[in-house]
Every structure is written in structure tokens, then in C-alpha cells.
Specification:
By secondary structure, the chain is α/β, with parallel strands linked by helices. It folds into two domains: 1-78 and 135-218, Rossmann fold; 79-134 and 219-253, no CATH class. The chain contains five helices and 17 strands. The chain has helices at 3-20, 32-42, 62-70, 123-128, 182-191, and strands at residues 24-27, 49-50, 75-76, 82-88, 91-100, 103-112, 121-122, 141-143, 151-152, 156-157, 164-165, 172-174, 201-204, 207-210, 220-224, 235-238, 244-247. The strands form five sheets. It has a six-stranded mixed beta sheet, covered by helices on one side. A five-stranded mixed beta sheet has the order 4-5-6-15-7. It starts with a helix and ends in a 21-residue tail after the last strand.
């Protein structure tokens, strides 16, 4: 598919999703893919947005708050119903399971290790043991910015096999950007003058990429997870306790298995 074909296809999927269901919401993190998704959907309908954010290190959200204000978005947030951990490439991530009707959306919180003198939170108490709860999900369809070309640093490729994945008894997922690549995302962003979170992304040799420093990346929290790693010793120094040794709790935690959702199987 050419870029023009992908753009036409995305608009067609949005119109089909709007026609097929009675109520809709857009999932957004205000990253590059979400910005394109929200902009495309806004050309067809004024829909509410679901934006999950952490309650700490609010400076990370200055870009998102500016877009919410400038685009007059109606934004909802709610806690996860439960949490779990996953680990790969030397990093512990904490997963939140957020309701999508009777189903859930699995969103990992990336962890950025604190540098000397930086404020940080406890991955165990502040993120893993965060408040959880149930939410009355009122929408029939969720527009999602996931692309078939996306790659997760822990689980690898995350394919999609349909433009609209129907969930019986729950909210269905609509994927307008299914066929897009990162290059397509940045082309649309530049051609349409979309705001760019320039403390998260930078342009190097004419190509956009994520900055190495994740301090202002909304997908990351500056936190310590030293006592949560399955590869760490049985006891580790705790920076929140002045370096006192604490036991490793990895064996007491819930660990997330790779979840193969129906729309990820037999990718076309």
C-alpha cells in the first residue's frame, strides 16, 4: 500500500467504526501514534479520549496537557483493576490492566533508573501497589493507535489481523493505523503540522526518533525497582531507606505472561 492508500484506508476504517457502533472513545497517550490517531478521528467526530497517566512527576505531562487544552479534548482517566510485572532486556516494567468494558487493556509502565539527585518513586509501593478499582465503561468501541509494525521491547512483535476486532460482550477495538509504519506517522505529522513532544522526540539526520533520556517520556517513570528483579540478588540496598539492605520480593509478585489477544493471531 502506498502512503495515500494507507491514509484513505484509515479514514475508511474510522467511518466504518463510527457507523457500526453507537458510542465511541479514543485511546491516547499523546505519543506520536496517538497524536495522528486523534487528529484523524477529529476530522470525523468529536469523541472523548481515555488517557491513563501516573500521579507523580507531572512535568512529563506538560505536552499532553497543552494538546488537551488547545484541542479542547474531553479526557477520562481511571485506575487499573490490577497490576503485574514483566522483565526483559535488564528492565522491570509494571503492567496495569485497565478495563475496556468486560475486557482489559494491558499498559506497561516503563521504568527509568534515577540519576544522582533526582526525585524518584518506589516501584513496589508507589506503582505496583498503587490504588486499583473498577470503572463503569460506557462505550461500545475503542479507537486505538496500535500498528501492525509495532515492536515491544519485552515481548517482540505485536501484529494485528483485522481493522476492527469485535469483542463479544465488551468494547470492540478499531485500528485505523493498522497498516502504517513509523515513517508514515512522521510524514503525516509534518505534512499536517501536528504538535511534536520535542522533549520526548528529536530529529537526527533528518529522521525523528525517541530521545535517549526518558526523563520527560510519558511512558516512563523515574523509579527504583531493585528489589523486584528476578535477576537481582536475594538482598539489595534500598535507596529509599538510605541504602539499608532489603529482601528481594520478586518471588512474591504477580508476573505477566505474554498475552496473545485474538487480534494478534494469524496476522494478515
Amino acid at each position: 500500500m502506498t502512503y495515500a492508500d494507507k491514509l484513505d484506508h484509515a479514514h475508511g476504517v474510522i467511518m466504518d467504526g463510527l457507523a457500526a457502533y453507537g458510542s465511541h472513545v479514543v485511546a491516547s497517550s499523546f505519543g506520536k501514534d496517538s497524536m495522528v490517531l486523534v487528529d484523524l478521528v477529529r476530522q470525523h467526530a468529536d469523541l472523548p479520549v481515555v488517557f491513563h497517566r501516573e500521579p507523580f512527576q507531572p512535568r512529563k505531562y506538560e505536552f499532553a496537557e497543552g494538546v488537551i487544552r488547545d484541542w479542547s479534548l474531553r479526557v477520562h482517566d481511571f485506575p487499573p483493576t490490577s497490576t503485574a510485572c514483566q522483565e526483559g532486556n535488564g528492565e522491570v516494567e509494571i503492567v496495569g490492566y485497565y478495563q475496556v468494558g468486560a475486557a482489559y487493556n494491558m499498559l506497561p509502565t516503563g521504568i527509568r533508573a534515577p540519576k544522582d539527585g533526582e526525585d524518584f518513586v518506589c516501584g513496589l509501593r508507589d506503582i505496583y501497589q498503587r490504588p486499583t478499582g473498577a470503572f463503569n465503561w460506557p462505550w461500545e468501541a475503542l479507537f486505538h493507535g496500535h500498528k501492525a509494525s509495532d515492536h515491544d521491547p519485552v515481548w517482540g512483535d505485536i501484529p494485528i489481523n483485522a481493522d476492527i476486532h469485535q469483542n463479544v460482550g465488551s468494547a470492540s477495538y478499531v485500528f485505523p493505523l493498522r497498516h502504517w509504519t513509523d515513517g508514515d506517522i512522521w510524514r503525516y505529522t509534518e505534512e499536517n503540522g501536528l504538535p511534536v513532544h520535542d522533549t520526548r522526540y528529536e530529529k537526527v539526520d533528518g529522521r525523528w526518533q525517541e530521545r535517549e533520556d526518558k526523563a520527560l517520556n510519558q511512558d516512563y517513570v523515574t523509579a527504583c525497582t531493585a528489589c523486584m528483579s528476578r535477576t537481582a540478588p536475594a538482598s539489595v540496598p534500598c535507596p529509599k531507606l538510605g541504602g539499608k539492605m532489603v529482601s528481594n520480593v520478586a518471588g512474591q509478585l504477580r508476573w505477566a505472561d505474554k498475552v496473545i489477544l485474538p487480534y494478534m493471531q494469524m496476522a494478515a
